[in-house]
């Protein structure tokens, strides 16, 4: 969870993630974790800036050979 998603936006000051969306995200992550656990896997959940959290996870795991990510689409004004 990126803390920057809970701050006001630069355009209107509204948070990117409001209380209803946050509740949906938390329920979705909980369900995904439970589903993965039933299949013998797990889900790593962290709070922080992704560029820092991913680097820390790679260091902790030590045997990472690839990292895949997506970039948020920017608004065209």
UniProtKB/TrEMBL annotation:
Q: Please report the stretch or stretches of sequence annotated as the Photolyase/cryptochrome alpha/beta domain.
A: 1-77
Write out the entry's keywords from A to Z.
Chromophore
Q: Which PROSITE patterns match?
A: PHR_CRY_ALPHA_BETA
Q: Which SUPFAM superfamilies match?
A: Cryptochrome/photolyase, N-terminal domain
Q: What single Pfam family name could you report for this chain, choosing any that match?
A: DNA_photolyase
Which molecular function term from Gene Ontology is one that the record holds? deoxyribodipyrimidine photo-lyase activity
Q: Does the keyword Cell membrane apply?
A: no
GO annotation (BP), single: photoreactive repair
Keyword match Cell membrane: no
Q: What is this protein called?
A: CRYD protein
Per UniProt, what is the name of the gene that codes for the protein in this document? Crydash_0
């Amino acid at each position: 969870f990126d803390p920057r998603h809970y701050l006001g936006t630069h355009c209107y000051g509204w948070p990117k993630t409001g209380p209803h969306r946050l509740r949906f995200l938390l329920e979705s992550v909980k369900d995904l974790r439970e589903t993965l656990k039933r299949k013998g896997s797990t889900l790593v959940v962290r709070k922080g800036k992704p560029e820092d959290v991913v680097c820390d996870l790679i260091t902790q795991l030590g045997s990472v050979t690839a990292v895949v990510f997506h970039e948020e689409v920017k608004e065209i004004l």
